[in-house]
Amino acid sequence: MEIILFGQLADIAGASTCRVEGVQDTVMLKAKLETMFPGLEKVNYMLAVNKKMVQANLPLSGNETIALMPPFSGG
Amino acid sequence: MQTPDTYKRYQRQTILPGFGDAGQYKLLSGRVLVIGAGGLGCPVLQYLAAAGVGVIGIADCDTVSLTNLHRQVLYSMEDIGKPKAGTAAEKLRALNPELIYRVFNEAVTTSNIIHLIKEYDIVVDGTDNFATRYLVNDACVLMNKPLVFGAISRFEGQVAVFNVPSGLDGDCIHYRDLFPNPPKDGEVLNCADSGVLGVLPAIIGCFMANEVIKLLSGLGRPLSGTLLTYNALTNDSMQWQLQKHPESDRLVPFTVAALQQKDYAWECGLPPAGLEVDAVAFEAMLKEGNVELIDVRELEEKPELKQWSHQKIPLRTLMKDGRTFFAGQVVFICQSGKRSITAANWGNGKYADKKFYSLRGGVEALMGGKESH
Fold this sequence. Notes:
The complex is a heterodimer of chains A (about 80) and B (about 375). Chain A has about 80 residues and is of the alpha+beta class. Chain A has helices at about 10-15, 25-35, and strands spanning about 1-5, 15-20, 45-50, 50-55, 65-70. In chain A, strands 2-1-5-3-4 form a 5-stranded mixed beta sheet. Chain B is α/β, with parallel strands linked by helices. The interface of A and B includes residues 54 and 67 of A.
């Protein structure tokens, strides 16, 4: 599935998009992403599946688009 | 205040289908507070004043600097060094003298925010730091005020409307649903450190002004329960459907008194904003190091302070003889937290290179806290 990383998260991942396969739900996905990009576990971000924010664990089929958004402070 | 020209001034928007004189009347009766008259605040203020929002509050404690001018185009060279809020009001008055402008040239704090936002129908968050963003969010949740939120970073921006029931399930989403707890200082870059494209706050600020106008006039569908994101490099824009976080409402202080006690700067990993720290904050300072604790009670006063290692220097001796402090931060403690405030004020006035604090409530608060657990 495609992962889109916003703001500073793209710096941490080294790219603004990446692909992750073989995860069954959003908890597994987060764990996998945090292993791939170690800086990720230290920062705040929200996760959306197909543009819908996810709070609890959500099963994934593999065809979703995932987006990770950090908070911005600038004004 | 309305003049014969009022009709003419707003004619291009009153002829819009669905807007009309009724929409204009709603704008002219509206009261909007813009917190932060910087990159986001400037375009919001300009378009709200132009559109005829009746009462516009402007809160900013900053002054105009040369580095502001590439994006805060409300200001000019001759404004450098002048307070932003007052200067903005002057410029807006030149644009539209028929409105009421209220200037607040001070920092928005836990002690003044409730009084400040009470007077307005909508609050706009154009601030540039998390401590104030979380404070503004919590105060608006507590007072049930619609909050138009905007934030930027480098080439990207976010816009949302909080505390307005969303169309889908009627939930009132706010900032803590997105990010329940503030990031620590340094975790997220600010504009000064990471840079920002000058037109980006103008684009995002215009989105924010648009949301205010929609909320006041009742036109269209506001971004409640939705986060709009925009990337200036790719023109990619996305609308995120937001969801309540199970903890978010619990993280907002339940009462005005509780909000006034909260130290938002400290929650964001900054040095405590005020003179007082509580035991939790002090423990955190200890972990970071570079702090020393001094008991300013008389030597015979009981009970002994056992929790933390400390020095004993009675207040009078301290203020008479002074002392060489080895840490950058000094926390004073006494019986009830009164003498330690005197000591902290004395220290902050005398030693410019150190920060002095008072442990809130003193030894009595520590004892009380223990018994209640």
